[in-house]
Amino acid sequence: LDAAGExxxxxxxxxxxxxxxxxxxxxxxxxxxxxxxxxxxxxxxxTAWALMMAAARRIPEGDRLLRSKRPWVWGPxxxxxxxxxxxxxxxxxxxxxxxxxxxxxxxxGMKVIYFDVYRPSRELEQELHAEFxxxxxxxxxxxxxxxxxxxxxxxxxxxxxxxxxxxxxTAVLVNTSRGPVIxxxxxxxxxxxxxxxxxxxxxxxxxxxxxxxxxxQDNAVVIPHLGSATVDTRLAMGMLAIDNLxxxxxxxxxxxxxxxxxxx
Length: 264
Prior knowledge:
Layout: E1 10-12, H1 23-28, E2 32-34, H2 41-56, H3 59-67, E3 88-92, H4 96-106, E4 111-115, H5 122-128, E5 130-132, H6 135-141, E6 144-147, H7 161-166, E7 172-175, H8 184-193, E8 198-201, H9 212-215, E9 220-222, H10 231-249
Parallel strand pairs: 1-2, 3-4, 3-6, 4-5, 6-7, 7-8, 8-9
């Protein structure tokens, strides 16, 4: 910020999350900040669903087996996974992406429970067939847990060793939100020790690094932050970021302004 000087009008973040920018410092200097919500909601929900399916049914593990060219013979107990249909999905962080995931779960006949510090309207709960649970109860009850929360001091290591131990040994944990929401070392140990069945991760605690123990676990499905990585979605994100930039430079309110108090 010091290097940019007084000419800086706006920081247009090319993402929905904004923990990578110092919002209070920008606000103090009267600099606008924006992000790119909404346009990546459905695509990120698709990614979370793909990770759930891949981890539960051991898809990457099967792919690696065939590519290794090791001899194999089909058997009735070969690479058994977990069913999604008819199971319970726990959504932690029930915003736009959480809602989109709940809609996908309906097609699989899943029961949906959620935790969020801000509860939606009763009408929306009924529309999504979603039931509120406190976090610890959700972790005990859910067969699949998908994280969609912002990164704050309160959510850092929200999923730690203690909470992992409250989950079912058949549970699958998915994270497409922010890496530090999970204690990555604790998760790696939990996967190694069979505390939970599997995990699907798009984000990591110290990106681009991944905990070395995590990479050793066949029951960890890991992808390099691809949550919004489709052609259409990335184009839409770029166009929204540009709209925010041009609006600020033209003296108008950016469409997705994060700190409106700078305009007061």
